[in-house]
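so i finally got all the pieces together for this one. its two components total, 929 residues if u count the protein bits. some of the lines might not be protein, just check the labels. i wanna see the whole assembly predicted at once instead of chain by chain like last time, that was a mess tbh
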Amino acid sequence: MTGAAQALDAEDLATPRPRGRATRMRPRTLAWSAAALALAALVLSPVASLVRAAAQGDGALWPHLLAHVLPRAVAETGLLLAGVGLVVVVLGTGAAWLVSAYAFPGRRWLEAALLLPMAVPTYIVAYAYLDLLHPIGPVQTALRGWLGYARPRDFVLPELRSLPGCILLLGFVLYPYVYLPTRALFLMQAANLIEAGRMLGRAPSAVFLRVALPLARPAIALGASLALMETLNDIGAAEFLGVRTLTVQVYATWVNRSDLPGAAQIALVMLVAVLGLVALERWARRGRGFAGTAQRPRDLARRRLHGWRAGAALALGLVPVAVGFLIPATYLFRAALERIARVGWPATILPEIGHTVLYAGLATALAAGIGFLVAAGPRLLPGPLGRGMVRVTSLGYALPGAILAIGLLGPLALADTILSEGLTRLFGVAPALIGLGTGGALVIAYLIRFLAVSTGTCEAGLGRIPESLPDAGRMLGRGPAATLARVQWPLAWPAVLSGAVLVFVDCVKELPATLLLRPLNVETLATHLYGEAARGTYEDGTVAALLIVLVGLVPVAVLMRLGTRRAAAATARP
Amino acid sequence: MPITQSDTGRGIPPRLELRNLGMRFGAVRALDGIDLAVRPGEIVALLGDSGCGKSTLLRAIAGLERPDRGTIHLDGDDVGGVPPEGRGVGLMFQDYALFPHLTVAENVRFGLHAHPGQAARAIATARLEQVGLGHRAASYPGTLSGGESQRVALARALAPGPRILLLDEPFSNLDRRTRDRVRADTLGLLRETGTTTILVTHDPEEALGFADRIALMRVGRIVQAGTGDDLYRRPASRFAARFFGDLVEVAGPCRAGHVATPFGPRHAATVAEGAAAVACWRPESIHLMPVGEGVPGRIVGRRFLGATVILSVEAEGFDAPLLLPVPGADGRGPGDAVGLRCDEANTFIFTDGTD
């Protein structure tokens, strides 16, 4: 999840460079062009294949979809997006304002802690709360004990398995997407203006409503669009909580009914929502320039709170941290320890870790290498193709994993057919399903979905190198590729590495594409967890869930350390 | 020291020859019909204000920009389609562009990859010694002073033995005192090695002191090329005249081939009969005389600058006081009456309304 946030800087850094028209088409340029076109085709193939598959479906399906599936799915998806949007905007903006405008004991700690929910994938939060809030789970049992009820049916909390429950859970996990850029904006750009408003004698609440909030609008919209992309991507939480979103329907139509055209048709409906979110995100980025003064990040002069007010502020700020991270993480930790103490480590956990690391690792290596080349594209491949690659490859992250996976089925099956026919002709025999059967498909899906994360960090790294350094490499007799290897790479590899960490974590957390594209009988940590949840055997999945959360903490820790500046740069670049 | 005009006859092919070079960035004409020839061993300055296209021209010669039209010949070969790494052109960047991850010696060796390791090491060492930085070979660029960085950049650019060396504002990042010394050292090294050089600068004094020949640029064109003496003493336009220093200007119509000025009628060969003309003088070519000689005037102000004194002089026929430099030892001051005289040869006449 954090990866998507990083991916955001990708495009801002892709300012077209006015130089580099120096070489004519030579064989090397031709090879780079071919590679670039192939990559663009790969990234765009899922959408193209979805359109094709949807067109192939017999018209007989539409009446069924229109009558029984789509209305409810569209309505639930719409309500879910609206609800999650509202919750993340309120929580994210409120939290950002709280830590930016007020000073109270524990504020610094809270500022970092508010990012913690980013470490927990939505399906794990849902998983944890389902067990916690179960009618005979710890919370309700304890409540009944305090209140003196004897039997579960005498006192029941409102059902978590509902649309409102899903909205609240997703909102409490995804609000950091809004919190991060909004806080950065308060830090980076708004300090002077907000202080000016205050100097003109307005009350803090009026300053918030009339100065800070309008200023932060682009940052809020940016964060909300990302949070909603994650909402659309989510499959686990919605399914566990019984919400039949479009995403769930795409998955179910394919898995339960093996109906590819049907799944593709629903996916196309979803693409409309995706396009809407991409448009919102683009708008937010464009609107960003208007307040953009190139100032160093600077703190607002904070209003100091004392006594009960200070305590109340801290407590208020802790609510989202507790709901979104502390409670589910503590539960997972205890449940996992209990489980290990009782029956030892789950027998399947080692192969699952192995599979997770294998697929995520392969995809990460590819994403890091290709991301670096794409980010360096304008240098390697002068002209619009080299510059355009960044934009094309950044589209992948907007595609929900389920849609991406369904869209990849067609192209991969085609590739498998061609491959095995070719091999059969050459050797007489060939393994079937080379891509779909080996996990190659999964690696490709990860690559497409998270390439933007890597490209973004690589671009940031390359962008910090003065243009004159690669130019100097050329003037000293080295070609573009040699200059890239000897000048830019040694200076940019830390950025490439940090991008790789983000990609790896995103791959580990990814659920829908993994479910759909993993080889038969292969489980990763995420799919194992999903399976246990689907069976209702929650405690068996806690170890896997805890491992995923621990991995997810890595980029959050990085963000906590560097986050302010980086996020500030991401929001404030003119 | 070869001092040549831009004609390219006399047998030796020019090291660099630009013909009708043109380039646009969108609606902006960065280069507009550039013609220039540089002889082997010659040092040429591209002089102009920021945005005049001089840096673009340098990058086009380097191969880092591709002009829309025109040709670039190096030693007679058309290098228009040759990428920068294939041109054998050295470029020293304004920010020096030293690779921060390589030591000084590795930086200088970077362009010597065609040589075997031992030979490359020897050349790099020799170049570093030449700029007096042999003892910093193992240092990283981050630890160098501005002047040292400049010298390393120079050594690195010279190491591969480029056919022509391009210097992009090479002294602008240095403070004033360092600059004069580094400039003299650099010039000495370029002369010693006989390196054909093009220098880009916005500083007319630097161009005058450094180059055999100056090409003055304006909005993508070379408006005048010649020796420093040519440009200073025989400017082809008021723009060229103003670029090298202050002017005293008097406007008047051209009658019978002459313009009437306070110093008397001046021959106006380049101005059409009856057109408005401007007569200009450099302040230092106007001489202060005893009272009674030349144009009568009165000193109204005195500003002491150490070696020189600037006197404000009100004189007949001039709208504003003239600011005239005299030696610092000159004792005259406000209230003193003087006479002003100027030679015909030191008068520039241009058509008014043109630059």
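Chain B touches chain A at residues 25, 59, 62-66, 81, 83-86, 89-91, 93-95, 97, 99-101, 110-111, 113-114, 156-157, 160 (CB under 8 Å).
Chain B has eight helices and 20 strands.
anyway lmk what u think
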